[in-house]
Amino acid sequence: MIKRSRSGRGAPADDVFAARKRKPVPHEFVLEALAPLGPETRPMFGCVAVYVEDKIVLILRDKPAPAQDNGVWLATTEEHHAALRPEFPNMRSIEVLGSGVTGWQVLPAEAPDFEEAALRACALIEAGDPRIGKVPGQRRKRGEAPPKRAVKKAPAKKAPAKKAPAKKAGKVAAKRGGKATAKRGS
Asked: Checking DSSP bridges between strand 40-44 and strand 105-108, what pairing results, if any?
């Protein structure tokens, strides 16, 4: 039933405000493994981002398309890929982020060792491994322009000293055979 307000607009019925059913967290066993650290979750890109203290450490993804990027995304940087590869042989760049190597890496859900690899990543996070986790940049309000970067100015060059203007009037007049007259400003 819709109730009418004084303005004539309808107020929604009470059942509209009932609690929404939340989607299940994908790969929830990862959160259980990180429970001693008190992880915090936030929605990100239709997935679940996992934070430990001030760092984003993982993203949990299980979406219909593209399915090849479903799994556990590791927040890392390209410099750590070679060191992480022996621990996670199926780790690869995330395809939805574009072609080429990305800082974020995925432990694919379709890999035969997925759960084992995801739990190994949780153990590394618990141990404080610096290869996993990033401190995100400062958040901006929607529509706000990014902060301007400080521009380094080149050192100022000294302007060459100005020479006094040469008195050409006398030379010109001498060539013509007459006297030079100095102009004075009035």
From this structure: unpaired
The secondary structure of the chain in percent helix, strand, coil, rounded to multiples of 5, reads 25, 20, 55
Rounded to two decimals, the pTM is 0.64
Structure tokens belonging to residue 131: 């290869």
Q: How many CA atoms lie within 13 A of 168 on its CB side?
A: 3
Rounded CA-CA distance 41/66 in Å is: 22
| Residue 132, φ and ψ in degrees, nearest 5 | -120, 125
End-to-end CA distance of the chain: 92
Whether the bond between 66 and the residue before it is cis, its omega within 30 degrees of 0, is yes
Angle at 13 between CA 7 and CA 14, to 5 degrees: 125
pLDDT (tens digit per residue) in 98-134: 888 888 999 999 999 999 999 999 999 999 999 999 9
